[in-house]
Specification:
Elements lengths: L11 E5 L4 H12 L3 E6 L11 E4 L5 H8 L4 E4 L12 H18 L6 E5 L13 E2 L13 H18 L4 E6 L1 E3 L7 H10 L5 E2 L3 E6 H14 L5 E4 L2 E4 H11 L8 E2 L2 H19 L7 H9 L2 E2 L2 H7 L6 H20 L18
Parallel strand pairs: 1-2, 1-4, 2-3, 4-5, 5-7, 6-14, 7-11, 8-10, 9-13
Antiparallel strand pairs: 10-12
């Protein structure tokens, strides 16, 4: 499909899930570029740039979505559940899939120049190992690795259908996102685990890690240069897990620990037992979600050539990204260990926090 002109610098952009990991960095990037920004989220963050309009509300509420879209030229749909495991498996479909359908349906009633749907690299993977992963991957719902992946697959299919029906939708597929401000997302939780030593037995898969600040820039580039109905893999550095954990050992100030690789079938078996205990006994997140192990087994070398060529997407050096992520995790750990005179505040689960 042909490209449309990107948004102008004074456009009003709406970011769903703008208080989340990717969303908050996207908001900061847009504001730095001179755009006016509105956020629709179920929680309010004190860290958003000055001047950002925040509208508390859910992507499942048509009236809230309609109100948030009033006067908007560019919509970035980033809100979603990023976890690979939840006690309530139906939450994935409600938020990631049905929430996306609600946003797209309400968007039909507004004159939007561009809609950027933030998907995931997980929908490009099946259940068997591949050598190269690119946007051309044509997967079926039955190939998805778990509930999270199925919900994101259905959401992406809804976005593609909306583009075919005339909405100016562009799809971005970030890989594993890390960086400062990471919260409890699966990739950042993985870094935290290995910074504490982590397991000695690992499934030595290929990962593609991308800086959250580069993802924010990539989403904006998708709005400006992306072709309607196309998807773009927003990725960073391909690295083996064994090489990554050696770097983390060094960044943590210790000599690299000796680790042993295990076959995929053994890792999957452990994950299935671990997740069964989480589902039926503890109610706590498993150390190794089944979905994550299946994605690791199927993962390969991610090719971002399309985004580089068509969006002019670039990434910062991986050493900088990893160092910044580690520094942020270290500061978060110190902050949580500091005594406080104020009683803890119970905060409800954010039902649409960004990926």
């Amino acid at each position: 499909m042909s490209k449309r002109r990107g948004p102008n610098a004074m456009a009003l952009s709406l970011v769903t899930g703008g208080c989340g990991f990717i969303g908050s960095h996207l908001v900061a990037h847009l504001v730095a570029g001179g755009e006016r920004v509105r956020v629709l989220d179920t929680c309010v963050s004190d860290d958003l740039p000055r001047g950002v309009e925040v509208m508390p509300g859910s992507i499942l509420d048509p009236a809230a979505v309609d109100a948030a879209l009033e006067g908007v030229q560019v919509l970035y749909h980033v809100a979603g559940l990023p976890q690979l495991w939840l006690p309530d498996k139906g939450a994935f479909d409600r938020i990631n899939w049905r929430g996306t359908e609600c946003v797209l349906e309400r968007a039909r009633g507004h004159r939007l120049q561009r809609i950027v749907h933030c998907s995931t690299e997980a929908v490009l993977l099946g259940r068997r190992p591949v050598g190269r992963v690119a946007e051309s991957a044509d997967r079926a719902l039955a190939e998805m690795a778990g509930s999270y992946c199925r919900s994101k697959y259905r959401a992406e299919q809804a976005a593609l259908a909306a583009a075919a029906a005339g909405l100016p939708v562009v799809i971005a597929n970030p890989t594993a996102v890390i960086g400062p401000g990471g919260g409890p997302t699966p990739p950042m939780a993985m870094l935290s685990l290995f910074l504490r030593g982590g397991p000695r037995f690992i499934l030595d898969c290929t990962l593609n890690l991308v800086d959250v600040r580069d993802v924010a820039a990539g989403l904006a580039l998708a709005a400006a240069h992306g072709a309607v109905g196309e998807r773009y893999l927003i990725g960073g550095t391909n690295i083996r897990l064994s090489a990554l954990v050696r770097r983390l050992d060094l960044l943590s100030g210790r000599r690299p620990l000796r680790r042993w690789g295990i076959p995929g079938w053994l890792a999957l078996g452990f994950a299935q037992v671990d997740e069964w205990i989480s589902d039926h006994v503890s109610g706590k997140p498993p150390t190794a979600p089944v979905t994550g192990v299946r994605l690791a087994i199927a993962s390969g070398w991610f090719d971002t050539a399309k985004a580089v060529a068509q969006l002019h997407f670039q990434t910062r050096p991986f050493a900088e990204t990893l160092a910044d992520a580690v520094a942020w995790l270290a500061e978060e750990s110190r902050r949580q260990d500091r005594p406080t005179r104020r009683p803890p505040v119970a905060i409800g689960a954010n039902a649409q926090k960004a990926l």
